Amino acid sequence: MEDLIVKQVRDWLLAEKEEAYKEFSSSLLPGVNNVLGIRIPKLRKYAKSLVKQDYESFLSHACEYIEGIMLQGMLIGLIKEPPEQKLKRIKKFLHKIDNWAVCDTFCGGLKFTKENQALVWNFIEPLTTSDKEYEVRFALVMMLSYFINDEYIEKVLKLIHAVSHEGYYAKMGAAWAMSICYINYPDKSRPYIKTLQNQEIKIKSVRKICESLRIPKEEKTKIRNELL
Q1: Is the pLDDT reported for residue 2 higher than 80?
Q2: How far apart are CA 212 and CA 203, in angstroms?
Q3: pLDDT at position 187, please?
Q4: In b/e form, how buried is each residue of 203-216, taking b as 16+ CB within 10 angstroms?
Q5: Could you tell me the pLDDT band of residue 3, with boundaries at 50, 70 and 90?
Q6: What confidence tens digit (pLDDT) does each residue in 18-61 have?
Q7: Mean pLDDT in the chain?
Q8: 130 within 8 A of 159, measured Cβ to Cβ
Q9: Which end of the chain has less neighbouring CB within 10 Å, N or C?
Q10: Residues in contact with 86: Cβ distance below 8 Å, sequence separation at least 6, in sequence order
Q11: Which residues contact residue 206 at a Cβ distance below 8 angstroms, ignoring those fewer than 6 apart?
């Protein structure tokens, strides 16, 4: 017999889907075929109501839609529990990540990282050398979200520089993270970008730096000439 909370969530997901938004979302997620088309703010609002219920059976459920998986990730971020327990949940959730949208929304909700940087760093650091594309991306997005600061910048730069996974979304995560490093710490980041061995990561890093509104227009040509 289907659990009540699982049925409740499925009914909500099917009621909130938007066909036009599904087409838009699907266009950003090539190869992903389980999109309903539900806007992220709606999912976040619903997750806040779910965390007040008996959510454990839903968290262990194998969701058929991407938005259900996103909800599970959002719930993990919202649950009030010891950080060590939350990391156990995160570890279990990582195998469910098979696209950038689930990965990045999950990272955005893990606000507990701000008060537990050393603990979370020790968890994500080894993931940068994983053979799983989305474990690498998860680690990189966590870094750019929570670890671009005076204490961790050198560690972050070294790990990005060493990324060797050939998966497209791992490389794009590395480029995104490197661009955020440069925008905040240009002098520290410059030598790491110059010596990147992966040309795709280097080119994408510079492109994302130059797309930033925080970089003055007159500096962008100079950056391209210097870093590429």
Answers
A1: no
A2: 15
A3: 96
A4: ebbbebbbeeeebe
A5: confident
A6: 999 999 999 999 999 999 999 999 999 999 999 999 999 999 99
A7: 96
A8: no
A9: N
A10: 76, 79, 110, 112
A11: 179, 193, 223, 224, 227, 228
Coil, strand, or helix at residue 61? coil
Q: List, as own/partner pairs, every contact residues 60-63 make where C-beta atoms lie below 8 angstroms and the sequence separation is at least 24, other chains included.
A: 61/3, 61/6
pLDDT tens for 83-97 read 999 999 999 999 999
Q: By the 8 A CB rule, do 163 and 133 touch?
A: no
Which tokens is 178 given?
């490197």
Residue spans of the domains in the chain: they are 1-109, 116-228
Tell me the C-alpha distance between 116 and 160, whole Å: 21
Are 205 and 196 within 8 A, CB to CB?
Answer: yes
Cα radius of gyration (the chain):
19
CB 51 within 8 A of CB 44: no
Exposed / middle / buried, residue 146 (Cβ in 10 Å: 0-12, 13-18, 19+):
buried
Q: What pTM did the predictor assign?
A: 0.95
Map tokens 């070294």 to a residue.
158
pLDDT in tens, 136-187: 999 999 999 999 999 999 999 999 999 999 999 999 999 999 999 999 999 9
**CA-CA distance, 192 to 179, in Å (whole number)?**
11
